[in-house]
Amino acid sequence: MAAPKKNRSVLLGRLPLPERNHLADALRAETVGGVLLLAAAVAALIWANTPLKDGYESISTFHLGPGSLGLNLSVQHWAADGLLAVFFFVAGIELKRELVAGELRDPKAAILPVVAALCGMAVPAVVYTTVAATGGGSLQGWAVPTATDIAFALAVLAVIGTSLPSALRAFLLTLAVVDDLFAILIIAVFFTSRLNFVALGFAVLGLAVFRLLLWKGVRGWYVYVPLAVVNWALMYNSGVHATIAGVAMGLMLRCHRHEDERVSPGEHIEHLVRPLSAGLAVPLFALFSAGVSLSGGALSDIFRRPETLGVVLGLVLGKAIGVFGGTWLAARFTRAELNPDLRWPDVLAVASLAGIGFTVSLLIGELAFGDDPVLGGEIKAAVLVGSLIAAVLASILLKLRDNKYKKLCAEEDRDEDQDGIPDIYEQDDPAYHLRMAAILEAKAAEHRRLAEVASGRTTGDDGPA
User: Fold this and answer.
1) How far is 249 from 78, CA to CA, in rounded Å?
2) Which of helix, strand or coil describes residue 12?
3) Phi first, then psi: what are they for 436, rounded to 5°?
4) CA–CA separation, 238 vs 293, rounded Å?
5) Strand ranges, E, within 198-262
6) Short-list 179, 193, 146, CA closest to 365
């Protein structure tokens, strides 16, 4: 008697149709946000490297806000601590949705993005630490190359026009969500210098009130927006990075649908807030964080100074090796296996996109080297250079696989029976096979009719002579 075949889940397999449609909507929003982010970063670099750079510095360091509440911050800090809280709020909703309705709801499926994300953060940290320690540099920046900017990565895909299979895109999106979670933990644990326990206690109380109102079904933006601002201010004054408040409130939203609901409250609020995050918060953060001097000497110093070289190598090599290696480990030592339509070069191309750090990497760089403006500026430049190199390498790899991707996407989108549902999702439906049989029979009848017409034209309409 043959041994029973071991059940294995397909690694990067086909997504359920509702999940695929949700992913397509999310990708469109992230892609637009990534293009705006790219435009803001370019504008900041131009502004900071022209005769107008003094104006850029004056605006970035201009302080405003109520000092009595501990919120007299510079414009740059308002962008990093305030506006980015909106970005992390959306990240919290995305994470919650993945946990209850996405890839992370199934522990077996969650192994892949979790292992890939962990390896994709551990390897860059090891690369940075090794380079910095070897060159006698500071080890404070070990976390800078560990983050992935999903908006920027998806913008690269849009710009180069590559037709990725939806499952591979889903892998990149899920990987980035898990990456964001660990980046949040890194910020909370390693970049909290001193705590104000009174402010932290009130922040926790405010979050509890937020959760209670949600549980009671209270509605109205005029209730939640002021409470969210208060919670953010308390978290900022507690010494914990203020973006943690955004993540916590995002995770509290309900992201599963009731029978009488078309969308869940979390999905509805994400739909409302995402344009604010992608179209305003993140681009403004980039505008006031990416403006660093990129003179010839500064660029060459990036590859000579151990801290900056560690950031570049961590993003370009560490991320690609870590994500690809983590995926391979999951396929080798778990019950997951690679989709037969995909090849490992496809995974490597997407893994290289994870080296685009940007938003969170810039934020961690500011936190790690905030007391050294010169080194902090060089670290920002290293993040920009490393992200650019990773984007170029990923673009080359993706272009090499372009024909493969187009073929896969054409197969996924094929709809022979014209019912609006791709045929690949109906292959197990008997009604689908009946419709396809009718379509094939109609086509065969049409071919026979055309053949008879052609035969009639050959022999003559009046019959043979």
Assistant:
1) 19
2) coil
3) -65, -40
4) 33
5) none
6) 146
CA-based nearest residue to 285, from 218, 360, 183: 360
pLDDT in the model for residue 393 = 92
- What is the distance between the alpha carbons of residues 410 and 438, in angstroms, rounded to a whole number? 23
Q: Work out the burial of residue 142: count CB atoms within 10 Å of its CB; fewer than 13 is exposed, 13-18 middle, 19 or more buried.
A: buried
Residue 442 burial class via C-beta count within 10 angstroms: exposed 0-12, middle 13-18, buried 19 and up: exposed
Neighbours of 389 (CB within 10 A): 18
Instruction: Tell me which residues of the chain have a pLDDT lower than 50.
Output: 1-6, 27, 459-460, 463-465
Would you call 432 helix, strand, or coil by DSSP? helix
For 338, list phi and psi in degrees, rounded to 5: -70, 140
- Cα–chain center distance at 12: 16
Sequence-ordered list of residues with C-beta below 8 angstroms from that of 202, at least 6 positions apart, any chain: 234
DSSP 424: G
Burial of 425 (0-12, 13-18, 19+ CB in 10 A): middle
Give the Cα separation of 446 and 437 in Å (integer): 14
Architecture of domain 12-191+241-401: Up-down Bundle (1.20)
Neighbouring C-beta atoms of residue 404, cutoff 10 Å: 16
Domain ranges of the chain: 12-191+241-401, 423-459
The strand pair at 73-74 and 63-64 is best described as antiparallel
Distance CA 322, CA 327 (A): 8
Query: Is 308 within 8 Å of 381 (Cβ atoms)?
Result: yes
Q: Which of 26, 90, 46, 67 is nearest to 286 (CA)?
A: 46
* pLDDT, tens digit (0-9, with 9 covering 90-100), for 208-246: 999 999 998 888 888 999 999 999 999 999 888 888 899
The string of pLDDT tens digits covering residues 285-304 is 889 888 877 765 667 788 88
- φ/ψ of 63, rounded to 5, equals -100, 140
Query: Which residue, among 172, 175, 254, has the nearest Cα to 217 in the 3D structure?
Result: 254
Site of tokens 């949700």: 22
pTM over 0.90: no
Which one-letter amino acid corresponds to residue 308?
T
